[in-house]
Amino acid sequence: MRIIAKKVVTILLVTVLTIVITGISESPAQAASVTGWKKAYQKHIRDYVKSGGGDDFRSDESYITLVDLDRDGIPELFAGKNYRTVQSMDLAYTFKNGKALPIRQSGGQGYASEYGTFHTNFDIGVAGFVKSTPYEGLKMFKHKKTGAIVAIGKSGYSSVAGWAVEEHVIKLIGTTLAIQEVSTMSEERGLPGDGSIYTYTIRGEKVSKATYDLNRSNYYASLQGIASGTKTLSGREVGSYDTGELVIDFKAIDKFLGIK
Fold first, then answer.
1. 132 domain-assigned
2. In a structure prediction context, what are the per-residue pLDDT tens digits for the chain, which is 260 residues long?
3. Is 128 in contact with 154 (CB distance < 8 Å)?
4. Are 252 and 239 in contact (CB under 8 A)?
């Protein structure tokens, strides 16, 4: 009986060790994904900066950003411009099955896309995906009751005629991006002496300022902020025209991607 018991224990220990070792080791496909997205994104970023849009990569008006929207451990890639009324999304990729695949917005009309062959159909610009600031960017939350992860992008525009601030819930399923309005606030400036017109909406419905404030307060009270892991690279860090021609800092791109 003791001999049989020892054999059973030995078999169980071997089985447990096998499960543990298998569970913590990566398969070749998983290992390839970890490094594969970096090389794939490196090519897209380099091509983007070197081509026509590269002329804009010399200031803080252009951004490249990485954020893991679908929480699969591999970030998505976005790039575009953010300057006053120019709110574009020029690159949008996710990495699936060993390939960088274009992201398309469900129902998007392309108002936020203006860049040649890198055309996207986004209605929200890159400002909603950059590392968060008080004025713009992407934040991650966990719903206090359901535990669901919620990504909210804050963006907008400004000009002499007025400004707007918009908040959208952003979801990525496969290669399809869906956005849903949380709130918007805008000012339309009239002629001198005419004053300004302020507009507030909640989920697309025009509301009063008091209703706007109350709904936003209640909505965010149901959420708990968590780290987004967003990384953002500005144009100033990538290119310059100090010599009269565009000089691209490829090392900055590689550092941003974690390529050594």
1. yes
2. 444 444 433 443 334 333 333 433 444 454 555 579 999 999 999 988 877 554 556 566 789 999 999 999 999 999 988 877 677 888 899 999 999 999 999 988 776 555 555 567 888 889 999 999 888 899 999 999 999 999 999 998 888 889 999 999 999 999 999 999 999 999 998 777 778 999 999 999 999 999 999 999 999 999 999 999 999 998 888 877 667 677 888 999 999 999 98
3. yes
4. no
Domain contains 20: no
Q: At what angle do helices 250-257 and 28-50 cross, to 10 degrees?
A: 150
Q: Which residues are 157's β-sheet partners?
A: 164
Q: Do 190 and 196 meet the contact criterion of CB atoms below 8 Å apart? A: yes
- Closest to 55 in 3D by CA, of 209, 240, 213: 240
DSSP state of 124: S
Q: Which domain holds residue 212?
A: 37-257
Nearest by Cα to 137 from 162, 110, 92, 170 = 170
Residue 17 lies in a domain: no
By C-alpha distance, which of 212, 209, 219 is closest to 144? Answer: 219
Report the C-alpha dihedral over residues 34, 36, 37, 42, rounded to 10 degrees: 130
Residue 2 within a domain: no
Provide the whole-model pTM.
0.82
Q: How many domains does the chain have?
A: 1
